[in-house]
Amino acid sequence: MKYALLLVLALFLFGNAYSEENGSDWLKIPSRESLSLPRFTIGEDSYFEVVASKRDTAVFRDLQERPYRFLPPSDARFLTGRYFRCAEEKSAYLVRAVFSNGGTGSYQLIRLGDSLLVAHSSLGNSMQYNKSAIVACLEFQPEAIYVTVSVAG
Fold it and tell me: pTM for the complete prediction?
């Protein structure tokens, strides 16, 4: 009986940790209306993935309750590293991101009207959704953040 109780407790704790890690709740597909708006690709020099050692800070502290937040430059550097640079006319925003196979993929950021699409594409056959975060230098404050993942196997 004691072992059964310990097993149930372990499954409960592991299950809660997994549900916090599972990024499927962050996925948000753009509406048809959003996809019909003018679109502009955000240049790769205008966004930075949060470094692994700061990922939990961004994911669980800063983005758990909201899809994005404004960042002062010092916070952006803290999350991404010393190489962070944002053009003077742009502001830094921490935004939700999700990936499946990080080692074989990459992000693309696209402006859809006044919304932002954060898309990750990769190779492989896994559909595990991992929460991550990106610091994006934007000329606009996003009205909505859309997050998608695609995997080609």
Answer: 0.84
